[in-house]
Amino acid sequence: MTRAGDLGLVLLVAALGMWREFTPPQLPPASLAFHLAVHLLAAAALWWRRTHPVASSLVITFFTLLTPNYASVVSAYSVAAHATRYRWLFPLHALAWAIGAGTWVLPDCLVGPGLIVIAGLLGLHLGDRRRLTRSIAERECALRVEQARADERTRLAAEMHDVVTHRLNLMVLHAGALRMAAKDDGVRKAAEELRTAGCQALAELRDLVGVLRSGRAPRIPDVLPDRLSRLVADSAATGLEVTLTEHGDDGTISPAVRRTMYRVVQESLTNVHKHAPGALTEITIHCGPSSVRAVIRNARPSVLPPLALPGSGSGLLGLRGRVEVVGGTLTAGPTDDGGFEVDAVLPAFVPT
Fold it and tell me: DSSP readout, 167-188?
């Protein structure tokens, strides 16, 4: 209802109150003037029935105690429909009508409260229906947003597949061609390692694209020592001097912690390859009964990297967020000898 409609309702209720007072039996002039003023003030209070339903209801209840008025019927509906926490105030209007009618010995001491109760119940029904409709609309809006995100995720997956996979395939093909054409055993070995790494990257990328398209969680093996050993062996094959030391029993580590710990070591080794190639790197894993700690420390590189590898600078930031999701902490920074250290502490058990 617009404000013009509210104004029309105020005028209609005021007119009904005046008509009520001018119908027989007639009151004395002083009492009649008092009643007319009460009807006008009660009707005027309806102007705020939607913006301030509780305050408007209490004011009209007070005026109804002075003399019963039709504004209390409308107010009972409004407070039941619009006041979420105080919508059960509408029975006060019925009580005030009965008291006011009894004070002035009016004949409708029961009809008025009946109308108020009906209006209040109607307001409760329509208010609940309106809130339910709004909730359904909000839910549908959230579902549409989620669907839009899923569509965008699928589009990004297709874009990633088209762009990155094409480049990786070219790298694998060139590495294979180099392995076949090279006459030096070292070059052939390096080309084969490059081709193998490219094939592994293609397989992992294919899995990630499938996750983006389907929305399902990736299937990652939960055997932490074997995967870490292979990860360290792959890095050592590129010429990095890296050692892996493990302490404690890893049987208490939950799968979610295993995956996070693996990503910590993987990202740390990636940074070593980028910024400190050839530097002595030590990986230490401590598996305790209640926590797991991984420390990846590399020494200062003897030579600067010949090629600057691309990086966004957000690897450690994203890694810290991933560690915090499972309730752990991650610190990273340079060491006194010019190297770099990553220290991650995670709880041993996190529900999957």
Answer: HHHHHHHHHHHHHHH--SHHHH
